[in-house]
Queue: 2 jobs
Job 1
Amino acid sequence: MARNPTKPLLRALAGEALVPPPWWLMRQAGRYLPEYRAVRSQARNFIELCLSPTLATELTLQPVRRFGMGAAILFSDILLLPYALGQALDYREGEGPVLDPITDRAGLDRLRKAGALKRLDAIFETVRRVQRALDQQVALIGFAGAPWTVATYMVEGGTSRDFRRVKGWAYRDRRGFGGLIELLTETTIELLSAQLAAGAEVVQLFESWAGVLPEAEFVRWVIEPTAAIVAEVKKRYPGCPVIGFPRGAGILYERYAVETGIDAVAMDTTLPAGFACAKLGSRVALQGNLDPVLLLTGGQALEQAVAELRRSFAGMPWIFNLGHGVLPDTPPDHVAQLASLLAAPAPS
């Protein structure tokens, strides 16, 4: 689709420093909003919620409608891709996602690439509906989990503390594990392309578990697949901005920014602003990185932290965001306070 280059988010991604900065929040649609909880009750489970265009469209629009963010991000989940590939998936209260673990080539062979994207048609219909409903100055962000992160859930069977299964397979059988990463790379390209064809204007790759790998493995399982995805998506959709979020990567953020071809890097809470400006800001746009607990806290602590971030990234192409997602018990009034703080004149 044609993209409106005057939208503030797209201007920042193209390298323009804006005052006030454009902003959106990771997990901006979620349990902290009472209107989310009302819609959530209409679906039998989380998968049904994500695959209902009517409900997912409403959830995507809710935070933008209430707080006036500069972007809407598609309401979906990174694990719908393994679900579409045929891996059993459930979301359990208090436990999170639970998958039937894939730990070897035999498990990999049971996945079904053929027709996987067809099983996610409802997501692309949601994108079309959201795009039609958005204000002309609000951008629409599509997303996917990056291959390494999605693989961790597929192999571990859910979240993990030590990642011993997935790292063990990668160390023990590089070629076999590489087959899983290759499959996820190919299908992630198709997933993002379908979102862009439906009306998304920006895509973000969530590499939530980038920080658990040593450098050599980070290059092989994070940088190389991401670079392949970015190159192919940009070949199909020239000019489409791609944001990468390698959470926990530390000093490897620099290699990630240089070697993947992304347009912007989303910074986690721990990445120092000075490092980001010095090592990343001349290469890519920056996004982030308020501690979500400060948004939970609100008041003067939030005001001071936002002012400091605005001073730190002044003159840089920067999108305000959190360093991770909105916490479920965040008061909506604190997000309203944030909106007011970001709309105010730049702090001295």
Note: The chain has a mean pLDDT of 96.
Job 2
Amino acid sequence: MTKNQLVEKVAKKSSLTKRAAADAVNSTFNLISDSLIRGEKVVVTGFGTFLVRSRAARRGRNPQTGQAIQIPQKKTPGFAAGKTLKRKIK
């Protein structure tokens, strides 16, 4: 499902205009992004948890040259599905 399809379904389910539904969807995503940028986790009960994961620095290899390189630590966004969502998917 694309973002546009999500907006259309939200508009239809909630009897909103497409513009109002787009504002709601965009606001939701922006709030989740802003919270993750601040290092907070976002828990949506019954759905899952959005969080920031930290990947440790490690050694790797350049696939073209085979030379060993140091890969720096980095933070990545993550999602952990909640129990309810996992049960529905099974």
Note: Helices lie at 3-14, 18-37, 83-89.
